[in-house]
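Inputs:
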Amino acid sequence: MTIQLRRDWWLSDAPESALQARCGRFYRMGLRALRSPAMVFGLAIIALLVLAAIFAPWLAPADPNAQDISQRLLPPGAAHWLGTDQLGRDLLSRVIYGARPTLMIVSLVALLAAPAGLLLGMCAGYFGGWIEAVLMRITDIFMAFPRLVLALALVAVLGPGIVNAVIAIAITAWPPYARVARAESRTVKGSDFIQAARVQGLPTGRILFGHLLPICLPSTVIRVTLDMAGIILTAAGLGFLGLGAQPPMSEWGAMISTGRQYIFDQWWVAAVPGVAILLASLAFNLVGDGLRDVLDPKNG
Amino acid sequence: MAELLIEDLSVTYPTPTGPVQVVKSLSLQMGAERIGIVGESGSGKSMTARAVLGLVRSPGTTTARRMAYDGIDLMRQDAAGWRAIRGRRIGMVLQDPKFSLNPVQRIGRQIAEAGLLHRVFSRGQARARVLEMLETVGVDQPGRVYEAYPHQLSGGIGQRVMIAAMMIAEPGLLIADEPTSALDVMVRGQVLEMMDREIRRRGMGLLMISHDLKMVAHFCDRVLVMYQGRVVESCSAGDLFKSRHPYTRGLLNCLPTGEHPGQPLPTIDRALIQEEAMRHGA
């Protein structure tokens, strides 16, 4: 059976093969996603961000680091669509290049924090007893600190820089995932199929990764998409305080920070990266929200 | 021949008002035969089965003068020792296939898992062995069931799959904890007959836990009747309906018959059982 392009094939009520049924399910999910304008908007902005990050050298009208003091602090206009900053650098180019560190931080944090939180939470929920008590108290300690403050302290120890910012944010981001995974594995742990696996003589590692992990995964993934906006804001916050990406790298938080000095006379220097942060975090929120609705079977 | 030997098995749970024994000095000796354990809820049937597999969770404790299977001391096993016994030497079929199969894994993989783990067959042979096993337990379309997820199966097929999963590593003893109480009456007989046939063919032992007296009498050689953690009667299955013990009589009287329609069923007279127990104790 091959995939066909006819609409009725995708929407058939009586699929002839498992492949067609699966295609149909995804197609319907896609249709449902497209019916929600908020999600379409979010997806469009994220797509734009990704494209901007990948094709920055071709999209940017100028070198983001090329300085021209004679052209400094120009308002938005024909030559520089979004104006220039205090060193005469083209703001549009810098915003486009700024998508790179932002996306990098978001994806690296998700890749580091989500598996760590998942693993800790799963172990805590499955083993219970003192292991759970110790792991969850550590989680509580991490959650007791405001995120940005803890990230700040960590960067202060590790030293400024984009890699250290990723590590710092990842260390502050895992506790919610641990909580979600623990709740999930606690409910599943008592179920008969875990019992059946034990009766068959399966070692603990195989029960954890073979049987428990696939069940804890979906809720953690949704939690991660909803957390993306928070990660962007924390990254921008670190950049603003000079602890994230270092100059001359164009990073939105750092750009706002330099624009702060001119905010009353040359508002665009701070406003342009500010809008970029706003749009990016809004987009991730909308998509996370929409994704939850699409994946929720109760929301037919 | 592999033999299960239990002497003086007790399972104890601490409570605020002192320790409570849920299984009281149970002794049992069985080879490749089929033994049924019957009794009301909370009589300690399931706890006995769990104790044999070392599955009594803390704070519960298991004590026994002796408990061994095929010369393996079941009272002195560490985690690795238990893993080698569970599934490979002693298998256990749980009550409800709806909950005892992992909802997010394909059936074929779930059945193969124990066999691969205990190195009964290699990865390359797994598919053929699982399909063969599915056919043995009476699944009409093994290929389709192999690829299916648990929610796509009916209860009867699900329980056949569970039995297949528990027999794939070829254990010598199968413990079945109310294997059919989640199935409807029509399917129940078919599944039991299949299980009975396979157990005879492979020369396995069966420890069947149930509250269904008729079923146990039909499918087992011997019956143990448990009441409040104690074995109150042990008889051959054929003699079960001739039993004189007040508790067993009570259970038998509670079975609905067509003789007096419209009459409320009798309840068990616990005072009488106590009296009997006192007499036996004295």
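Chain A has twelve helices and no strands. Flag for discussion at group meeting.
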